[in-house]
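Reopening this one. Same input as before:
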Amino acid sequence: MSPSIQRTALLLLATSAALSARAQNEDAPEPLGIRFRLAGRVQFNLKASFTDTQVPLSGAAGQFADGYVLLGSNTSTSTNAGAVSANPGSATWNWGYQRENQVAGNELTLTRFDQVPRVGTLDGSGGSTAYGGELWAMYELYSFRSFKKRTGHWGVEAGYGFTTFDASASSTVSGTATRRQSVYSLGGIVPPSAGYQGGYFGPVPGGPVAPVVDFDPVRSSEVPVRSSEVQDVSINSFNSLNAAVSTDLHTVKFGPWVELPVTDRLTVGLGAGFCTIYAQADLRFSESTTFTGNLAKFGGETPNLTVNASRADWRPGFYARALVDFAITPSWSVFAGGDIQSNSDLNFSSQGRGTSIQLGSVFGAMAGVQFKF
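Same output, byte for byte:
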């Protein structure tokens, strides 16, 4: 055994002997054992923010918001330099579209909107105060003489708490955008149902035949969208966003505590330790972009988007608390106090829309009853 380990073992033995000697002292009180606490709880400074940062579409030709017409293996030609292009007048099976009304006769219309104004980041409202409850189990490891020979206690505690909170935000912005639209010939085919998505390599051997469309559009147009008071020559672009998040917080705490007597009935308790939160959050986004103005040039199209996303994860942190306890009987007492928790934030997103649930520096107030035996 190394000298350092021997010294550590001797120190532990000496400490144990000292504690045993004190426990045998007739003036040393006996520990009371186990106690339970049940409390209602209010939390402050819970926050949520929302971010609307739509990922821009690729600038590649043939890529649209509601479909695509791209190079396929039956369309591509390669040069010695490694460049890939399409033969003039060729067709491709690497195409797709989303809605039935994009097909009219023998033509397919695809549209994209670039530089649409975005709301950006919004602070949520309604979630700063949340209500819930807590249940604690406390084990007394030792008791000691404190002020005026009154008995103090220390030990370890473990608690579980549950809280829910909701937050929401909404905003509307206007700005400048561009609509790009291309019309492709279907070449006389009967298109598959809306939602069709072809691939680069075309049909699988032995599978269904992949329909093709002309690679080059029949015609294309680009119309700027501007915020302006001159309605007869320009277009207004408005982006409206409604966002909300609902969150369940399951909190687990563990750490040491100490109880110091003030009078025979009144005590002050302190505790601190590890705190972890299991956060279950549901995010909802509803967004619409409205274009109004010169309908002959642009039309009154209103793209709508609904996004739903969920995440559940543990968020580590710490807590510190202080309570004042008033004894009614030797076994029952009432208490009130406050605490602070600090945990890492919960962040998640879907389709460029996301939320940040901010769990750092959360203050709490609680009141309840305690039973000990």
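So the earlier flakiness isn't reproducible anymore. For the record, Residues 1-26, 227-235, 294-300 have pLDDT under 50 and may be disordered.
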